[in-house]
Amino acid sequence: MQTRTWNAAELIRKDQAHHLHPLSNLYRLRQQGPLVLVRGEGAWLWDAEGNRYLDGFAGLWNVNVGHGRRELAEAARAQMEEVAFVPTFFGLTSPPTIELAARLAELFPDPINHFQFTSGGAESNETAIKIARYYWWLKGQPERVKILSRQMAYHGIAMGALSATGVPAYWEGFGPRPPGFIHLTAPYYYRAGEGMTEAEFVAALVRELEETIEREGPETIAAFIGEPVQGAGGVVVPPEGYWPAIAEVLERHGILLILDEVITGFGRTGTMFGMQQYGLSPDIVSFAKAITSGYLPLGGVGVTDEIFDVLSSVDRMFMHGFTYSGHPVACAVALRNLQIIEEERLPDNAREAGSYLLSELSELLDRPYVGNVRGKGLMLLVELVADKATKAKFEPSFQLASKLEQATRTRGLIARCTPEGIVLAPPLIITREECDFLLEAVAGALEDVLG
């Protein structure tokens, strides 16, 4: 394929002069500049200077079918030539939007059969929270507005989703958050389950939930929102029995269950949806990211037949939506993307490749600075500690994340490096050979930084 020639220095200069990066250290970017990526193919990316990297984070957990899929470009082109934009406000729609809603009804377990579309995960979780509250309002229980969430949860950074997010670093400096959000303990056995068996830890978490509901009053709680496997907050894989026990308590108290499948949806955990790992049947589900494999922005929310019946039982406008809800080009790409995921059996590859990576990464536990290795499918984390016995974290002054980022990129790997360690979520098309490249890069980067 013919590739363009880029002036890397000029691009970096313009970026530093004009681009305000999200979720980035703006101070360091002013000094060092960004890494400019110009081409992708499969699981690989190339920068403006021609260096190649394995995309160990699939963009932002989302490029499940890999880069450079001409089928998706063709789907977008064909739809743009027919009609590029049709709103879904005021009873309008277009064929790809209708077909995608129908296809999702086939993919999601019953009774999730009704869908509203958004442009991404934060919008999806804003929508899910508002639908939960609106549902209770329509049922004559307007006091049910509180949302139960968890520490270490990540649900987005729009203000409602931000309040459900349980990572304080995302709150700092942005003023007061909307009230009505309560954060419970994350099912993070490695740190929060100290001195307990996994079964005892689950029992403690269920007890905390029961006590919280009793204290707040079930008649004031609209919903519990949670990721099947917590992602951006630290790849927290819940212990055996956690989700069935939590779901039983919520159902007993009439509290809606919102599952955030923004990261876990469309194959990443080894099944099409994370809920299938735990036999869950939510009332509301949010999704985004991999529905288009990141080729165009799209997200959405699915609700049960019962919730839809309540929402559509009154002769009034549903006063929620976004300009690009159900964008026909994004929906056309999503339909083709879902076809690829199914035909190439990518959830199966996520399960098999993830199992291999987890097994091989677990050998790093012999190193004095590797405290925990965990994952589900192609969501993995190598957690690093300054002291294995105490589980003490590295001091911020050590700048672990930036050192790991530099070391992994030097070795040709793009991963998410945090103060806790290295997060991995490669495209679901990853091969065994590429897994071995990733493993070698991680092991070498850890040696470079920590010896």
- Characterize the overall form: globular
What top-tier CATH class of the largest domain fits best? Answer: Alpha Beta
**How many structural domains are formed by the residues?**
2
First-to-last CA distance:
40 Å
**Count of strand segments:** 15
Poorly predicted sequence stretches spanning 5 or more consecutive residues:
none
Structure description:
With 451 residues, the protein is an alpha/beta fold. The chain has 2 domains: 35-65 and 345-450, Aspartate Aminotransferase, domain 1 (Alpha-Beta Complex), CATH 3.90.1150.10; 71-343, Type I PLP-dependent aspartate aminotransferase-like (Major domain) (Aspartate Aminotransferase, domain 2, 3-Layer(aba) Sandwich). 40% of the residues lie in helices and 16% in strands. The chain is built from 16 helices and 15 strands. A 7-stranded mixed β-sheet has the order 4-10-9-8-7-5-6, with helices on both faces. Strand 8 (256-260), helix 11 (275-278) and strand 9 form a beta-alpha-beta unit. Helix 4 (70-82) runs antiparallel to helix 13. InterPro entries: Aminotrans_3, Aminotrans_3_PPA_site, PyrdxlP-dep_Trfase, PyrdxlP-dep_Trfase_major, PyrdxlP-dep_Trfase_small. GO terms for molecular function: pyridoxal phosphate binding; transaminase activity. Belongs to the class-III pyridoxal-phosphate-dependent aminotransferase family. This is Aspartate aminotransferase family protein.
Features:
451 residues, alpha/beta, Aspartate Aminotransferase, domain 1, 7-stranded mixed sheet, 4-stranded mixed sheet, 16 helices, 15 strands, transferase, Aminotrans_3_PPA_site, pyridoxal phosphate, transaminase activity
